[in-house]
Amino acid sequence: EKGADLGFTLSETRVQEDPRLKAFGYSLEQVSLLLGPMAADSKEALGSMGNDAPLACLAQQPRLLYEYFRQLFAQVTNPPIDPIREAVVMSLEAYVGPQGNLLEMSPSQCHRLLLPSPMLSIEEFNALNQISQLHREWNVHTVDITFPKKEGIQGYLDALDRICDQAAEAIEKNDRIIVLSDRATSADRVAVSAVLATGMVHHHLVRNKWRSQVALVVETAEAREVHHMCVLVGYGADAICPYLAIECIMKMAREGLIRKKLTPEQLIDNYKHSLDGGILKVMSKMGISTLQSYKGAQIFEALGIDDSVVDRCFTGTATRIKGMTFELIAQDAFALHEKGYPSRNILEIPGLAETGEYHWRDGGEPHVNDPTSIANIQDAVRTKNDKSYEAYSRSEYEQIKNCTLRGLLDFDFEDRAPVPIDQVEPWTEIVRRFVTGAMSYGSISMESHSTLAVAMNRLGGKSNTGEGGEDPERSLRMDNGDTMRSAIKQIASGRFGVTSAYLADADELQIKMAQGAKPGEGGELPGHKVSGPIARTRHSTPGVGLISPPPHHDIYSIEDLKQLIYDLKCSNPRSRVSVKLVSETGVGIVASGVAKARADHILISGHDGGTGASRWTGIKYAGLPWELGLAETHQTLVLNDLRGRVIVQTDGQLRTGRDVAIAC
């Protein structure tokens, strides 16, 4: 409507000095590694090498509640959707607002608001907030999700009840839009987590059969990346305005911190477009094509959240590892708020913190692959130094304890009698069970790929081609007796390099249904990496980027997988057939189906596996630790009397003999 003020004023505070960014947990890595590329390139940045950072429930520093949720994905049964080839059926459009009685045909059924995307710019949110000026019946009720800092942890808990009460008042007044806002955050007011408030209000309305009467909009400084938006939408948000992330991007442009010279409008459009594309990719992992189906579907597993929180705010979400209670969540909120608005004057390094979430930083979060461990293992290998390996093993043991679930376990030596070493299987036989990760030629160099193959062939283990095929000449034996042939040939969704000769020259054929670093997604090889030899091996064109589709386009059920297993056994009767799955809740049932489909071997991959290139959302937030998936798979196969049919294998940041022993 003419005369409505939809604009906003950008504060003069610099990015590095903005207390709100610190209070909501923004780090220098998130701003430079995520927000900058999203605003400049209109798509999320690529990462690689997997995720060796600690789980949120094991982190030393306070984490946002979003990071305790792991994305679920489809594998084998209802497959993921290819969001590129099948873009025509993908949609982020959704009608919001009161729903009429579906069994009655009346004009009121049409009185709803169509949003082309759940992501709102600040101007779009202001327009929605003032919609009652144009449509009088569309009243907006804003619920402040902040509370006075002086009330302490009890104030946080009381705020949860107040938020639900105010949402109920909005229903009684027939308001059509409820806005959950943390705009009032200041030195004296602390914000309740937006995802906690959203899930709580959503389920409060559902329990009282009021949810269809209102739209739920979130105005938050907390959410900034794709996963955050997915969690908010998955737990009931109809629309989201990430106002602080938008303001941060505009300040970065003002200070020359974004490499492309674009107008503020272009930067915000790019940021929204990258969020939209990321949400579509996450939806497609589960085979969902429309936002209306994804909204409120809760396609997540909570990792490290207590039942008391899940029952009230995230009802129905699977949670096997307990942890964060309301009191602990409140403590993290105060710890983050203290960084932005300290209660007392302290001396600290100016600027946003280097938290080390994505890359190792001295004083930041621990990583499995820390510099000390890498230096020790390199020295041990180059100089055959036993002391260096012992130092590496001790260092890795400490990092594993800090970062993984298996680090919380220990061996029960007291109730076990030692076995004489001559009764133990010799190491020469043990290493025959070892295999390399499935990294393709292209994601790593020919020198690395072939060296791994030679080493495993000398040991008697197996190397894996990955999904990039293999040059037939590598099967020839060299003058010194070595061979660069990979014993395991992988068949992935792109089928790059898969020929009859490729299948016949294998000891094991592995069907990759999902990959630990990016389950539910296809592999990506940028065009600049596709050189002549790589293109020839993959039967493609040099310089043209290669993207594997998320699903195998010939596998849409367990019966289709059984057919492929049968075909592969016909192509190479002496080879065993393996199926690669990724750990998630329910993977045991999928593994049972794979065993019934006559697979000889099942690989359960952990969420922290390596990759040549993947979006950061997939690397950080999809899949679960192999410890959970392996235990579920083994128990489910035993219960169904299928364990004797298959060999079960696992991978994902296995570093020492202790890790292997725990896996066994």
Would you write up a description of this structure?
It is a single chain. By secondary structure, the chain is an alpha/beta fold. It folds into three domains: 295 residues, Alpha-Beta Barrel (TIM Barrel); 60 residues, no CATH class; 230 residues, Aldolase class I (TIM Barrel, Alpha-Beta Barrel), CATH 3.20.20. Strands 13-14-17-18-20 form a five-stranded parallel β-sheet. A four-stranded parallel β-sheet has the order 5-7-9-10, sandwiched between helices. Strand 11, helix 10 and strand 12 form a beta-alpha-beta unit. Helix 2 crosses helix 8.
**Stretches where pLDDT falls below 50 for ≥5 residues?**
none
Assign a percent range to the helix content. Answer: 25-40%
Could you give a short account of the major beta sheet? 5 strands, parallel
Assembly type: single chain
Q: Structural class, please? A: alpha/beta
What is the CATH topology assignment of the largest domain?
TIM Barrel
**What's the CATH architecture of the largest domain?**
Alpha-Beta Barrel
Major sheet: arrangement of strands: 13-14-17-18-20
Q: Kindly state the number of beta strands.
A: 20
Radius of gyration: 26 Å
Helix segment tally? 22
CATH superfamily of the largest domain: Aldolase class I
Counted up, domains total 3
Mean pLDDT: 92
C-alpha termini separation: 67 Å
Taken as a percent bin, the fraction of beta residues is: 5-15%
CATH class of the largest domain: Alpha Beta
